Backbone:
């Protein structure tokens, strides 16, 4: 399997076309491009000895049709509203395959938090209010976490300015994920699903 870099806008487009939790990007793209056996019939491809590049160009008219289609689908499905799409939904971003590749509980914990941050950058500051009885769980610096208690084992949430305490058992980490999900506007049922990814 080859890896490619894509910009955030394209990633969000692919993620917004997810039909089931944990669906891989390859599956989504195959569905969108009407591919079944790995052959490409309508887009341009260039092959070299070491890599394959696939370029799919979508016209502005097609983009508008996809946008209108997504808007009408969101109206017909009560569980996913237009507001949810605008704010983002972590279920469109979390990929079970990538999650399974993370090292241990701490790796999965940080991966889920990073996905929540990418989806809710503006609201993520609310996690700073989540605290334990004697110590804080989140901070904007490693030092702030270390000041709140000993043996915090602070870790940076990937690609963010936030740090999280990781020296807690799995049950506590699940509780923290549940609280994060609730403070970012997810329902109790959705928060439980996010917690259970750990």
Residues:
């Amino acid at each position: 399997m080859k890896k490619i870099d894509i910009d955030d806008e394209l990633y969000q487009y692919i993620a917004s076309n997810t039909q089931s939790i944990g669906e891989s990007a390859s599956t989504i793209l195959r569905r969108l491009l009407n591919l079944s056996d790995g052959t490409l019939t309508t887009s341009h491809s260039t092959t070299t000895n070491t890599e394959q590049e696939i370029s799919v160009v979508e016209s502005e008219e097609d983009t508008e049709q996809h946008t209108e289609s997504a808007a009408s689908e969101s109206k017909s499905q009560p569980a996913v509203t237009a507001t949810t799409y605008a704010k983002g939904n972590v279920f469109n971003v979390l990929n079970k395959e990538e999650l399974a590749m993370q090292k241990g509980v701490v790796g999965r914990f940080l991966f889920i938090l990073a996905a929540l941050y990418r989806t809710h950058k503006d609201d993520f500051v609310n996690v700073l209010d989540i605290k334990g009885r004697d110590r804080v769980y989140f901070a904007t610096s490693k030092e702030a976490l270390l000041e709140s208690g000993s043996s915090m084992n602070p870790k940076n949430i990937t690609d963010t300015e936030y740090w999280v305490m990781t020296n807690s058992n799995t049950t506590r980490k699940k509780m923290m994920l549940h609280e994060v999900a609730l403070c970012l506007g997810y329902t109790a049922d959705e928060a439980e699903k996010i917690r259970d990814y750990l």
Notes: Residues 60-76 form the longest helix (17 residues).
